[in-house]
Amino acid sequence: MTTRTEQTDDNSSNDSPSKRPRPELSPLYNPEVLPNELKNVDFTQRITWGKYAPYTEEVLPLKALDAPATPKHRLEMHIHNLSNRARAGTIHLQRPSSRPIPTPMFMPVGTKGCLKGVTIDELMHCLDCPIILGNTYHLAIQPGTELIREQGQLRKFQGNGNHNLLTDSGGFQMVSLSKLSNISEEGVTFENPFAKGETMLLKPEDSIRHQTNIGADIIMALDDVVSSVIADHDRFREATYRTLRWYDRCLQAKAEGDPDHQQNLFPIVQGGLDTQLGGLREQCLAGFRNRDQDVAGFAIGGLAGGESKDDFWRVVNQCCKALPDDRPRYLMGVGYPLDLVVCTALGVDMYDCVYPTRTARFGVALINDGTCKLKAQACATDFRVIQENCKCQACQLGITRSRLHFMYKTGNPVAVQLLTQHNLTYMMQLVGDMRNAILENRYPTYARAFVKNMFAEEAVPGWVVDALNEAGISLQE
Ligand SMILES: [Zn+2]
Predict the structure, then answer these.
(1) What separation in Å is there between the alpha carbon of 425 and the centre of ligand 1?
(2) Residue range 261-279: mean pLDDT, rounded
(3) Are residues 374 and 314 in the same domain?
(4) 22-61 confidence digits (pLDDT tens)
(5) How far does Cα 177 stand from its chain's mean position?
(6) What angle in degrees, to the nearest 10, is found between the helix axes of 280-290 and 309-322?
(7) Are residues 185 and 306 located together in one domain of the fold?
(8) Whether residue 240 is found in the same domain as residue 131
(9) What is the pLDDT of residues 74-118, one digit of tens each?
(10) Catalytic annotation on 168?
(11) Is the pTM of this model over 0.70?
């Protein structure tokens, strides 16, 4: 049997290095400006942690679905099965009696700590949603994270639930919501939306302090976010390296603020849309591989910001192929049902987005073949429920689209409440269906059926075909 090393040696003896074609590296690869820690990385190869599967035929070691979390300094991810590259797993948090999180999972966003129109109890028990996301920026501005801490942290502040929480770093909103924001090595300076003329500085240490006050199970490192549609290469390069440096500062701040290791800090992979060998995504991945031992899970950031779908899936694909199999992969800000089906095929485990709840406020229902606009005149005489076989309150009570149409028309707030519940029920059903399909080794069949249903009357977009092909799923079968 020939080992890989022997093959390499054979090749090199027959073929002098100068004759071998040099793999084409990204134009953004410049050894002169690489941080010292990355200077010895071989960027002619793809960055990878080394995989169990599915890039070989080997399957990950199975662990029991209900395997208890052993006391550890970070969360545990158990992968139960792979169907092509799609993963079904369970995340066990280290907080005593915390509820395990099945994956793939969608996390609804409770911007100011709660979702509009849904109580925590409804979320946990009626909608069976194990984890929600809170926005650090909004909570820091109002009511302030010190006040939340005084009342026993956010979980208690929300009303004694046993739900799991994830908070973002706050950086994204500072950049996206503020007219005036300025990023320096120290942190992000932005205009205080509640005190005209005043500026505030958010440093990586501040972000962690706020997130420690809030007390979420999973917290995010402050990253240097650049809009994915700008074309400033130097700015992307600066942001990529700064994201690595800021992660180190976040980790240090967390060590001081969370000595009992109750919180899990996720770094965010940045690097724009540059997926080429030696490109910025590869450089960022290499940087986090160097910091691997402390990382509880990884987020994929800098997407869902208006980039082309082709760029979008290629970045997701690259990150999933590189990142280690034994930790969660969280794709930030992604929540269209089609995106979930495609990105799960590529190997993503967690998602969050305001879309299902925000769109409910505009009267848009998520249904199996796309969306239904309840405010549209056509719904005035549509006597069907929103979606057959849906377990939400409105569909179970037999409330028709027509009834909801008139509730929206007359400004009845219960309509928004019912539709928010419906859309979240749809999302939880979607991730549950994906998980079952993966556990039963039939994710390709599931994804094909989903796409065919959604595009029954129009051509399937090229990016969907390409991304699924990359995941080994052909739509032709
Ligand atoms: Zn429903």
Answers:
(1) 7
(2) 95
(3) no
(4) 789 999 999 999 999 999 999 999 999 876 544 444 444 4
(5) 20
(6) 30
(7) yes
(8) yes
(9) 898 888 889 999 999 999 998 888 899 999 999 999 877 777 778
(10) yes
(11) yes
**Where residue 311 sits, what CATH number does that domain have?**
3.20.20.105
Which of 168, 274, 325, 349 is catalytic? The answer is 168
Sequence-ordered list of residues with C-beta below 8 angstroms from that of 358, at least 6 positions apart, any chain: none
What's the rounded Cα separation, in Å, for the pair 314 and 463? 9
Distance 454 CA to ligand 1 centre (A): 18
Residue 206 lies in a domain: yes
Structural domains of the chain, count? 2
Beta carbons within 10 angstroms of residue 457's beta carbon = 6
What is the domain extent for residue 422?
360-456
Cβ atoms of residues 175 and 188 within 8 Å: yes
Does residue 31 belong to any structural domain of this protein?
no
Catalytic residue chosen out of the listed positions 206, 339, 352, 382: 352
Which of 302, 332, 353 terminates a domain? The answer is 353
Residue 326 pLDDT greater than 90, yes or no: no
Summarize pLDDT for 152-201 with one digit per residue, the tens.
888 888 877 788 999 999 877 766 766 677 889 999 988 877 777 888 88
Of the residues 353, 378, 408, the one at which a domain ends: 353
Angle (CA) 374 380 386, round 5°:
45
233 lies in the same domain as 311 = yes
